[in-house]
Design a protein that fits this description.
5 strands, mainly beta, globular, about 10% helix, 1 helix, about 110 residues
Length: about 110
């Protein structure tokens, strides 16, 4: 063990620790696409442009691509949080924008 770096618990914010080797995609670029969500993480009280909100980040496959994305839309956060709690991965989903203008995942 001498000279080896220890595997450490990531920072509480999770910044830079969620599959950093994968490219990041804007969730808006995934609208109406079937994706396979393989893992996800909830970040509570993320400080954004409009104050503190909960945020979910997830790893997914889209065709042959593998990447991560993030979303703070309330309905998406709620649904992905439930999937995290149930440890129900992998799971298929499709991001949509409803006629009322909010984002959802079905």
């Amino acid at each position: 063990m001498a000279g080896e770096e220890k595997h450490r618990v990531p920072s509480e914010s999770g910044e830079g620790t969620f599959f950093p080797e994968l490219p990041r995609m804007r969730f808006q670029d995934l609208l109406n696409e079937e994706i396979l969500i393989e893992d996800a993480k909830l970040i509570k009280d993320f400080e954004g442009n409009f104050g503190k909100k909960d945020l979910v980040i997830w790893k997914f496959k889209w065709g042959e691509k593998e990447a991560t994305t993030a979303c703070s839309a309330m309905v998406v956060v709620k649904k992905i949080s439930q999937i995290i709690a149930l440890k129900d991965f992998p799971i298929w989903g499709k991001l949509i924008k409803t006629v009322k203008g909010y984002y959802d995942i079905i």
